[in-house]
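Tutorial handout. Part one gives the primary structure; part two gives the three-dimensional structure as tokens.
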Amino acid sequence: LKAILESSDWVKVGVSVKGDATRIKNDWGVTVASCEELKVLAQSKDLGITSFSLQSLAMRLLHEYLPKGDAVRRSNWAAPSLNVQQQHYAAADAVASKRVYDALKQDPVPAAP
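Part two.
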């Protein structure tokens, strides 16, 4: 995982991904290379939306609802191991981030629903 995070061959994408990279650097001493903010990329497009959360971007670009339950979002992410709900949440976020990134790289971006 460290090699992937430090590699510039792998683009890391997400909403607030640079904040995540800073936390990884501060907590683990790993410098995350090649980060691209989905919000910044989305704002450079004419999407007709004002919210640039991952949930909003997934709805606009993928026409899919991304569940973001408060209970799991506010759970203890600093625990030594993640519970099943946290694992599912993190995996869904990662997949949605990649798919949103791919959609934003299309020219033109997918049409609104």
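Part three, for discussion. The radius of gyration is 15 Å. The chain is about 50% helix and 5% strand.
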